[in-house]
Structures are given as C-alpha cells and as structure tokens.
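Task 17 of the worksheet. Students: predict the tertiary structure of the chain below and write it out as structure tokens. Keep your answer in the requested format; marks are given for formatting as well as content.
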Amino acid sequence: MKIISVVGWHNAGKTVVVERLVIGLKALGLKVATIKHTRADISVDTPGTDTWRFDQAGSDLIIIAGGPLTVLMERRDQEESLESLLQRVPQHIDLVITEGYKREPYPKIEVRRAVVGGEPISAPSELVAIVSDDEQPNAGAVPVIGFEDTQALIQVLQRWGIVS
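Model answer:
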C-alpha cells in the first residue's frame, strides 16, 4: 500500500493540501483514502440524530448506511494506531494520504506557512516536498511547491513512485 503523510504545524494549511491532492489524484482515476489524526477528542455526529442517540446510549460500534455512503463509528478504550487503521483500508485503494502523523515512518509533504512560523518538523531525508507560501532557504534538494501548484506536487509524487 502506498502512503504519503502531510504534516505541518497547526493552521499551516495541511487540510487544504490534502483536499487539493485528493481532487487532483481522483482526476487521474486513482482511488484515494485519507486518514486524519487530531490532538483532540472528536465527535462526528449531530446531537439528536439516531446515531448520536445510539452513541449516547453506549453503543461500541455504530454503522449508518444510505446510498453510496457507509459510516462506521467505533468506540475504543484507547486511540487506534496508524498501523491498525491502515490494515482496515481496502485493497482497491491506490494511495493513502495521512494528515497529522508526523512521527510515523512514511514519506512526508511538510506544509509551512510564513504566518504560522515554527521550526521544520521533518528531517530532510523524510521529505518528498515542502508546500509553502514562503521561500525555504534551507530546503536543500527538497522541492518547494506553492499552495496553488497541486499538479507540480503530484508530479513529485510520481517521480518518487508514490503515484503511478
């Protein structure tokens, strides 16, 4: 399974990069999965709905299916590891894009925005590319790509063999 991680500091624009990558890769006919990590507890349901009520009642697994979309919500005693989540990804998926798993050992796109600042997160050896709105004087051989240039980012992923 091919995996690329999009990492960066809070509010740097990681989600924008992932969203644009998904759109660009889907246009190439690829099947794409996304896995996002967050520091906070999450709630993906709307208070008052049936599935929310099932959750409030203590259901450990809730599945809602309708039309072409199925949603699975599972309560666990602790956070599930990325490796465990990746085992759940169906075989027909061409690429998994993770967001926020900065310590995992996968190739990375680091998102940097001048107004957010912060030190680089990834070692240069982990980086496939840097997406930034600012010059990156210490980027070395790592390509620096603007936020609007998704096609250039996809070409870098193709050169790395991450995308066919």
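Marker's comment: The chain has one domain: 2-42+77-159. The chain has a mean pLDDT of 92.
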